[in-house]
Amino acid sequence: MPRQALPRLEFWYEFASTYSYLSAMRIETLARDCQLEIVWRPFLLGPIFKKLGWPTSPFNLYPSKGSYMRRDLERLCEAYGLPFTLPVPFPQQSLLAARIAHAGRNQPWIGAFTRAVFVAEFGQGLDISDEGLMADLLLETGAPAKDMLDAAQTRETKIGLRAAVCDAENRGIFGAPSFVVETGDLFWGDDRLEAALEAAAKEAS
Amino acid sequence: MPRQALPRLEFWYEFASTYSYLSAMRIETLARDCQLEIVWRPFLLGPIFKKLGWPTSPFNLYPSKGSYMRRDLERLCEAYGLPFTLPVPFPQQSLLAARIAHAGRNQPWIGAFTRAVFVAEFGQGLDISDEGLMADLLLETGAPAKDMLDAAQTRETKIGLRAAVCDAENRGIFGAPSFVVETGDLFWGDDRLEAALEAAAKEAS
């Protein structure tokens, strides 16, 4: 008898995003409790921000928003029991990590790899554009490091990640993390993760 | 024996702000449960947005953010059991309401008046720049309508409200609603109301 497909929730995340870190660390456990399948959708916010007229993160463009974000993250990480270090520079260059995650988005290790990147970046303050670090994290999470670093540089991956950015825009996404349920209803921000999970589970029942 | 002073939480709100509506409708009941005193701090976001380079609400400047805000508000209002109608135009001219609330900020009817304005605006879609509407809402909430409309136009009120905007900036405020606990710790957004109340209560204990 075929196993019934679980309802799906798309998780759109940007490796340079602090609030994506919070959701990435929490989503797989929460989704298991709700019997949902997570669709991992790594993407890049840079091209979307540029269209909004922002050459960099709004947390850098608007210092009061940036200071607040740091304090908010400190409090939230404390509440979630997560380490927090803002890497220098912020935001990090997330292109390499995003390409690897895009290439591996349907692999069983994608959750573990995603969390490993975020912990290296926002727990330890490491530089996620470093290929050596990426290789280490891939190995740690049981992924074929060399193959994935190669896969990250293929034309298919580069075009696929660009298409993911278009998909994000078509869903109305303007920030990260974002969550999209099967009806297309959009939820933005780590503080909407629980509501998105609830909506995805309700829709399916 | 003098009654012990309750710990205080500053509630910074802008009448034109949809998310301020959500907090205004909830804060007094929640504060009573936590034995906190609310310090009502009506202010204007316009001058702060102008300094950030935004001639109007970011929800108008960035259409994807605006569409999302409408959907998010619909869902939140449904969850809270509140009516929701976005007034036209959005954002509303909130200067008159803010001046009245500033002049009456320490009066016993300030919570009821604040809620009445928000319900007229976001529950019924009414024009809150209308002096007749303000008079009706003041009367409804047991406030001296004529005196308050006069007080709204005094030099003291106008200067006081401008000073409130400076106070907001000095606290690092860049959006509404915002909450400030006695140590100066800032919380932004209706989704941080519970955390702000908890921090204010904890600090006092």
Describe the structure.
The structure is a homodimer of 205-residue chains. In chain A, 55% of the residues lie in helices and 9% in strands. With 205 residues, chain A is of the alpha+beta class. In chain A, strands 2-1-3-4 form a four-stranded mixed sheet, with helices on both faces. In chain A, helix 1 runs antiparallel to helix 6 and helix 5 (95-103) crosses helix 9. Chain A is globular and about 45 Å long. The model of chain A has no long low-confidence stretch (mean pLDDT 96). At the A-B interface, helix 4 and strand 4 of A face helix 4 and strand 4 of B. Chains A, B: It is an enzyme of class 5 (isomerase). Chains A, B: This is 2-hydroxychromene-2-carboxylate isomerase.
